[in-house]
Amino acid sequence: MKKTATLLFAALIAISGSLLAQERVSGNGTLKKEQRTASGAFSEISTAGKFKIFLKQGNSHSIELEADENILPYIETEVKGDELELKFKKGYNINPSKPITVWLTLAKFEEINASGQVELVSDGAFKGSKLEANFSGRVDAKLNLQYDKLEVAMSGSGKMKLDGRADDTEISVSGSGEIDAPEMQSQNMEIHISGSGNANVNVSQKLEIAISGSGSVNYKGAASVEQAVSGKGKVTHQN
Question: Domain range for residue 117?
Fold first, then answer.
């Protein structure tokens, strides 16, 4: 018991030291827009922090930011291979006076990895063959898609609203996440929910559902349904 207490105390000291080592930077209230140069084309996005991101499909690639002028230098935008990394510089505790807004234009949108308090909004519909979306934390996404295949993995308390079409869709929700997609047409879909998450979907051919916990699936469409539910989970069909 004494050894455990000693280890716990040491861990708390280490965490406290790490937080104290971070330099706090607060926004000065003067907003400024800034264009960033992309070193190459990117089809994947990785972001962590607190950003509001507007996505648009176009022939060129562009990055534009709006934030407190004294915070802009602490926002990193770096293209590595096919991936754009959007994040804060290490060693700093960034506190903007207003939400940081990001506008991204890209030709292909194939993968998004977002964690923290990120808001994603698509400006118009994105078209492609496959999109993979991985969210953790309190990510809020509103996307209009036209894809052959869509894969979504959500953990935490995020929300995702989907419109458009995704012929084959795989959804995995752990925690209290929410998928709102009654206006997105899918032919085939697999849904896995653990925890108290819920999904509202539209499927025309085949729907496979697995729920553990108190999660729920509400679906419309004429799909044949296979379901495995444990706990207080429920599946309902909306006419």
Answer: 23-124
